[in-house]
Amino acid sequence: MTPMKTRTSLVMLVALLFGTVVVASESRPAFPDLTFTDLDGRAVDLKSFQGAVVLLNFWATWCGPCRLELPELQRLYGELGGKGFVVLAIAVDTPVAKVRPYMDRLGLTMPVLLMNARAQQALGIDRIPFSILLDRETKVVQIYPGYSPEIMDDLRRRAEALVVAGADERGGK
User: Fold this and answer.
1) CB count, 10 Å around CB of 40?
2) Domain 3-169 has CATH 3.60.130.10
3) Where are the beta strands (DSSP E) in the chain?
4) How many whole angstroms separate alpha carbon 129 and alpha carbon 127?
5) Domain positions in the chain
6) Alpha-carbon span 79 to 159, nearest angstrom
7) Which residue from 48, 54, 97, 148 has the highest number of Cβ atoms inside 10 Å of its Cβ?
8) Shortest CA distance to 31 belongs to which of 40, 22, 39?
9) What is the pLDDT along the chain (173 residues), one digit of tens a residue?
């Protein structure tokens, strides 16, 4: 797929899903396989997390609501991380030199990836924080624009349900 077609598909996907609850797994659209950069400059493909429930969380060091949300996501990651749940904290338009100290200051250990503002815009993400919950097949379950305690409650409930469903499918508890 050409870069222009990929961008168009991404924008259409986010536009269709923005604020929409996607319930039935067979009707969930697949999220495109994106490549991010980690804090050491290595490429990280989203497909490498297939098999885990993934939360993509787009944030920035200058974002006030992100400062509230990130520690809550860290707690959720700490509780569910060993059970097949991954939070990918994707810093947008932030120099790497600011990200590490910020993460250390907040005591965050979840994986941090980088994305520039142009790529964020191509995805159609017009605000941060902005989170996208993906099932084990990287299909979109729910999109969360912004931050609120209600959003965190819903995100926690859905993530726990997806993790439990995955454990049940594998015969675990």
Assistant:
1) 6
2) no
3) 35-38, 43-45, 53-59, 85-92, 112-115, 130-134, 140-145
4) 6
5) 3-169
6) 11
7) 54
8) 22
9) 444 344 434 444 444 444 444 445 557 788 888 889 999 999 999 999 989 999 999 999 999 999 999 999 999 999 999 999 999 999 987 788 899 999 999 999 999 999 877 777 778 888 999 999 999 999 999 999 999 999 999 999 999 999 998 766 655 54
